[in-house]
Amino acid sequence: MLLRLLVVLAPAYILSQFLRNSVAVLAPNLSQDLGIGSAGLGTLTGAFFLSFAFMQLPVGMALDRFGPRRVMASLLAVVGAGCVVFALADSAPVLLLGRILMGIGCAPLLMGAMVVFARAFAPERFASLTAMHLAIGNTGILLATSPLAMMADLIDWRGTFFGAGLLAGLFAVLMVVTLPEQIRGKPLSSGRSEGITQSLMGVGRVIADRRLWPLMPMLFTGYGSVAAMTALWGGPYLADIYGLNPIDRGNVLLLMAVGSILGPICYAPLDRRFNTRKWVVVPGCALVMGIFGLLAIWGRPPFWLLPILLFLISAGNGYFSVSMAHARSLYPDHALGRGMTVSNMLVMGGVGLLQPMSGLVAGLFTDGATGAMGEPSYRAVFAFLGGSLGLSLAFYLKAPDCPPYKKSPSDEMKSL
């Protein structure tokens, strides 16, 4: 059953990850073809995540009421439309519209899968299943590196997005045909027919839960800081500071993509192995924060060391799945959809805001005459991202731990 679910759910999430990270490799192409500057690139990338975040509350209510199949399949059609608009764009505003449509359409593709896992499997398996899904889906990040650069060289970036739109339509059909409405007799929707007012009140109750408040900054910055590298600044940094061509940039970003796949796999069993979620998240966040700080101080490390540092940033961010499991443990079963999408709204809202904000930070240090970004601009970006993580970690340390087992795993076995 799990394999069947992954075959249905994973392709759509792979496409989502590919689309959200595609600007990093294509940034020089978009700048050359349509004159998009650094602030514009930040806005273009952030638009995907902001529209994604804006949709989380209605998507959460829809997932609870209608179930993942209908919601995910319907919005995959919007993804296809966004890809076509992006491919046809002849100006920055049309590119922006395409990215917004992509973000709206991709909004349920992670949370829908997480609702399936939460409703169909035991709670203690949630972190492992989420990590597995993230690891598979993160191959989309890998596809948005060297393969995207080669595809753009072969059929142009416009042809690439036409192809992505076609895949979105095919995945929507796959979802309708193969994803069930219930698993093992358990419905994937809550079965509640709530009105808009009742649903919004339910969302309000989730947000008002004080136990979630110390987690909010971590959810807001934890993924967004690393996404700023993989989805936006990685490509320009490698081009401006190290002079790499598109294929070589893609190869370095490919290593980051591999880290984003291996990281969740490595983190997946740790919360159950040590019976803690908080103290899995803390060292993972501290590692990523420390590397950003090192890049901010160093600016241009030796090229042989740079891929290692970038790999550790993306692999270290595997703690994200455990932080999501920490938040999931706070939500009642009937509100899983809206609860998880409140978490994802924070995550994607953070991505959507951190990227344009980092663009503004970079702009403060660009060459006033040419607008070129040099080492000071990127050092400022790294300091901003590392500082954001440090602030969120300070809040997260105040959060209560929510271990997977009320007793230690060994005690659980003794009681059987």
UniProtKB/TrEMBL annotation:
The keyword Repeat does not apply. It is found in: Cell membrane. The keyword Transmembrane applies. Keywords: Cell membrane, Membrane, Transmembrane, Transmembrane helix. The chain crosses the membrane at residues 34-59, 71-88, 100-122, 134-155, 161-179, 212-232, 252-270, 279-298, 304-325, 346-365, 377-397. PANTHER family: CHLORAMPHENICOL EFFLUX PUMP RV0191, PURINE EFFLUX PUMP PBUE. This is MFS transporter. It comes from Iodidimonas muriae.
